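Internal ticket #5521
Category: modeling
Description: The requester needs a full-assembly model to guide mutagenesis choices. All entity lines are attached below as received. Residue total reported by intake: 601.
Assigned to: D.W.
Attached entities:
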Amino acid sequence: MTSAALTSRVGAASAAPTGGAPAPRKPGGIRRRDRVVGLLAVLPAFLIVVGFMAFPVGFALFISFTKTNGLTYEWRGLDNYIALFNDPIVHQVFLNNLKFLISVPLVIFAALIVSVLLFERVRGWKFFRVIFFLPNVLSVAVIGIMFRNAFGYYGGVNQALGLFGIEPIQFFTNGGTAIAIIILALVWAGFGYQALLLLAGLTSINPAVFEAAAIDGAGWWKRLWYITLPNIRRVLGFVFIINVLYTFTSLFGFVFVMTAGGPGFDTTTIDYLVYLRAFSSTNLGSGAALAVVLFLFIGILTLIQNKVFKLQEED
Amino acid sequence: MAVVEDDVVVSKRISSSRTQWPIFIALVVVAATIVYPLYFVIITSLRPNADYLQDPFGLPGEWTFDNYLRLAQTYGVGQAFLNSMFVSTTAVAIVLLLASLAGFALAKLPVPGTKYITATFVSVMLLPAPVLIIPVYLMLARLDLVGTYWGLILVYVATGLPFATFFLTLTFRGIPDEVIEAARIDGAGFFRIMWSIVRPMGSSGLATLAVLQFLGVWNELIFAFILIPEESMRLLTPTLASIGERFLTDQPLVSAGLFITASIPLILLAFASRYIMQGLQVGVSR
């Protein structure tokens, strides 16, 4: 657009209505042009997101009502869902996911301790912050294999036990210990980042509250229990929910590289079962139905999060 | 903000100067639980297997780059590294470009239906990957894009865009309207404004986003594994996963693979931690 065209438009359109939108200084002609330019600018991103994120959700819903190998679709109504709810493997896998929830209090507890320590802002706290964030930049493939190596037959843990004359332990042939190690990996991978989230919550507490408490002679523990924790309960709630969500949607990587779901289905999680059903069974509909159920479950949790913690208003 | 932080420090120091040392030591202990495993991986990767089995916790009796060479020469890790680099840079570049356009429009232009467009971006942001696996695979198969980098890049762009657009909309809102208005009066068109005002003024946000998105794509495993079945075309994370599976008895070799995969994220954290920490403020929605 040349400046001459721009001024002429300004002159011509100064009386035109602006459609009630904000920015009253802009005349209608330019606004109309802006709308077109704006729409064109948003369009590529919007189309890709609709095409490859929103549409697939609908497509998954469709697939879940059919029996399909990906080429031909045979309408089956709710058959896949009914089969799902009667499937003992699905029951077991859902229970596995519940077992993985043990990681939630562990991660939060570790994160809480670290955040309270960081909040004291001792020398070098910014450096520590970067260190604690470190696992968060690593791939689950890296963290998962690192832990599987460490607890493998020839791994560091068994070598260390060997120093005390203890025979090597096969951690991954037992469902219970395998889950425990995946949980350990989860805690290791997650606590630092969440400590930083909690630290942000701590930082937003009005310092005057602490000063008042200090003047009243409240000790460190008292302040922690009666001031610090109650003041960050919202952030704590948020961290709690994202951990629960994470347990249901993001264990795939860990399970994939650490145990492949075994022994048997002992460490298979719902998201891993979706993958197994999708790529090792003749009926994709079953996997899609499981994915849809997972999606609804996550959706409900997210709604609860938004309703209860109202984090959107905070931003 | 700085004033508030100073207040905190002052008020803390009043009562807790005694506790400074125990807290520092506690932090060192926690930091060690993160640093030691990585140290162990790096040291292990630099020694022969026999040497490792003899004394896994001591320093290597013999230092060697042999594990890295074997991975690169025999197991195609060098190629996988380059593949990952190509896919990650391309996907991030496309995401940055498209999200900049959309973010600027949503922040500063009267786009019709802004509310619905934003709602779409926000509502798919937390979409769990498992939901997408089956339909996306079938769609890409129909488009003949399974087994090509472009299919994979398309998926990374699609999954990256919602957060990227949301993030850049927030960033670009911070650019004063007056500056844009002034440029318009000087006759700058849309692309001119994007390039000479939005890009430099939003550079910190763009850098943050670039780093976060790069980490996300570089570290991704599921789609990289599913969408590239051809072994010679594999990206780094699936290659690492298969090496980890095949060489249970050769810890030094697997450790070298771990370090190669972790190297780029670690370098980014070392040199761009400022941007990563900035992203954290907004990245709550990850």
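Resolution: model delivered.
Comment from assignee: Residues 1-15 of chain B have pLDDT under 50 and may be disordered.
Ticket closed.
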